[in-house]
Design a protein that fits this description.
Blueprint: H1 2-22, H2 28-42, H3 47-72, E1 89-97, E2 102-107, E3 110-116, E4 127-134, E5 137-142, H4 144-150
Parallel strand pairs: 3-5
Antiparallel strand pairs: 1-2, 1-4, 2-3, 4-5
Helix pairs in contact: 1-2, 2-3
Length: 152
């Protein structure tokens, strides 16, 4: 009895420490299972009952709580306001040339540093499509690309 009690207590402590370190809800179910086994060992139940309790409590809690916890966890990164500009039409306000490291566009009333997504040079007044935003730079391509993307 004493040996199994010590064993389950060590498993319980190890599972709690592992959970505290990772914070990923990986070992919390095993901590609960080992707590049930510790209780069984304190009551003098045979080792087979302790192991059965450990397995059944751990698996039951895992099956019941894991789907709930997965729904509650934040999975998606919320897009920033800049991400909302992707796919929009912008107007070139300063010639865009990757080789000369120049270019600015106006997207919805806001001016952005711009680079050509496809390597083309765009002159002032040209309509372009925003392909991606990286930091404070808009990467643009020909405006026709925006219309091609919208077709099913």
């Amino acid at each position: 009895m004493t040996g199994s009690l010590i064993f389950w207590a060590v498993v319980l402590i190890a599972a709690v420490i592992a959970e505290a370190v990772t914070l990923q809800l990986v070992t919390i179910w095993f901590a609960a299972g080992s707590a049930a086994a510790v209780a069984a060992a304190c009551m003098g139940m045979p080792l087979s009952v302790q192991v059965l309790l450990f397995i059944s409590v751990s698996v039951a809690l895992l099956c019941v709580t894991r789907p709930i916890i997965r729904k509650l966890q934040v999975k998606d990164v919320l897009p920033t306001n800049a991400d909302g500009e992707v796919g929009k039409i912008a107007v070139v306000t300063e010639d865009i040339s990757n080789e000369q490291n120049t270019g600015r566009v106006k997207i919805g009333g806001v001016y952005w540093k711009a680079r050509s997504f496809d390597g083309n040079v765009y002159t002032s007044g040209t309509n372009v499509c925003v392909e991606k935003i990286s930091g404070t730079t808009a990467y643009v391509s020909t405006a026709e690309n925006a219309f091609l993307k919208e077709k099913p």
